[in-house]
Design goal:
With 103 residues, the protein is mainly alpha-helical. Helices cover 54% and strands 7% of the residues. Helix 3 crosses helix 4. It is globular, with a radius of gyration of 16 Å.
């Protein structure tokens, strides 16, 4: 259990903008090409970020997500469509919308 002082320090560290690491789609692609525990954990992070984006109504624009390696990756919709391994339902397929909107 954390004390109040350490929790405050943790919150300050979490919101320090100089510590934000940006990942690229190329780095994500190389990570997902190899089937290991990191790529499976990243796949789960992409799915969780997609569901969270839906619950927060952040579907439009280009939502970003934080991967399991701590980097912020752009374009959650593209990552979800390529790496979540989910197929859209027949209705969404007929409407030509991707798997990101079909969740």
């Amino acid at each position: 259990r954390r004390s109040t002082a350490s929790a405050t320090q943790y919150e300050e560290d979490a919101f320090n903008s100089s510590d934000i690491k940006i990942g690229s789609l190329t780095e994500l692609h190389h990570m997902m090409k190899i089937d290991n525990s990191l790529s499976r954990a990243m796949r789960n992070a992409i799915i969780h970020a997609g569901v969270l984006a839906r619950k927060k109504d952040e579907l439009y624009g280009t939502p970003t997500f934080i991967g399991v390696d701590g980097r912020t990756y752009p374009d959650l919709r593209l990552a979800f469509g390529k790496y979540a391994n989910m197929k859209q339902c027949a209705v969404c397929k007929q409407r030509v919308q991707g798997a990101f909107y079909c969740r």
